[in-house]
Structure formats: structure tokens, C-alpha cells
Amino acid sequence: MNAERSNDHRSLTWNEFLKYRTYRRGFQVASMGISGLVGLVVGWEYISSVNIDPTQMIFGFDPLLAMGAGLFVFTGFCALLGPLLGNFFFNLLVLRSKRIPFRLKEDLFLQHVKKNRVDPSYQSFANPVPDYYGEKITSLHGYRRWLRNCAAYRKKRDEFLKT
């Protein structure tokens, strides 16, 4: 069983894996927007149905201000739940049978990123860290570019430290 699982990540090529990562990010962003809008509509419906007494303070604030802040917080909370929902629907609709190979390949990819990323303690405005978590890597070409940017960062850092 373990031998089969260790070979599962080979059934998914790097290009397919990176394509699926891009799809997953799209699902997460779209579901964040949709769940934020749903939260806004539900919160607005609740606020519009509540009787507000302008003479009564809510937590020491004007009722309209308190209700507006509550609406803002509820919308933000719903928007934060969006990526979780997007990830769930991505796994359900897109990955299906490739869920295990995708997770194995993702673990391997994140190990590569962790091994090759640069130390951010020396960053500056003139020399920013290139994509610390590897979120913008969407292809093998992009991965190679990221490796070159990391090497260039290290070179600049080492030249700066020598002076």
C-alpha cells in the first residue's frame, strides 16, 4: 500500500499539477467574492428587518454606526469562509480521483519551495524577496524563473554583505 502511495504522485505531471493549482486558486478567489456578496445580502436583510430605536445606544455607539460595523464584520467573515468553500468544491468537482496524487505532488512542491526560497531577513525596498511562498508559480517556466530570481536575490544580498 505504501509503495503504491509513493508512486501515486507520478501519475500527475508537473504541468498538470501547476494547472490544477491555478484552477484551485481561481475557485478560492471566486468563492470568496460570492460568499462575501452572500454575507452582505444576508446581513443587509437582517439589518433592514430590525427595528432600530435611535435613542438607544448599542455598545455605547450610535445604532446606525453599530449596525454598519456589524454588517462590515459579517461580510468580512463570510468572505474569509470563501476559500474553504472554494477548496471543497475544487476537490469535489475537479480533482475527484486525482486527489491523493495532487496532495502528494503538492507536498513535494512545497518541500522544493521551502528548500529553495530565500531568507527574508535581508529584504529591502531595493531588493524585495521573490514570492516567498511560491504562490505565483503557475508553470515550469515560472518555477525556473522563480529559481533564477531567488539566485539573483542571494547574489545581491551577498554582494551587499561583502561591502
Keywords:
163 residues; mainly alpha; 72% helix
Structural account:
The radius of gyration is 23 Å and the shape is flat. The chain is mainly alpha-helical and 163 residues long. The longest helix has 36 residues. 72% of the residues lie in helices and 0% in strands. Helix 2 runs antiparallel to helix 3. The model has no long low-confidence stretch (mean pLDDT 89).
Q: What structural class do you assign from the helix and strand content?
A: mainly alpha
Q: How confident is the prediction overall: mean pLDDT? A: 89
Query: What is the oligomer described by this structure?
Result: single chain
Task: Give the uncertain stretches in residue-range form.
Answer: none
Tell me the major beta sheet: none
Strand-and-helix sequence, N→C?
HHHHH
Binned strand content: under 5%
Number of strands: 0
Principal-axes shape call: flat
State the helical fraction: over 70%
End-to-end separation in angstroms reads 55 Å
Roughly how many Å is the radius of gyration? Answer: 23 Å
Q: Count the helices. How many?
A: 5
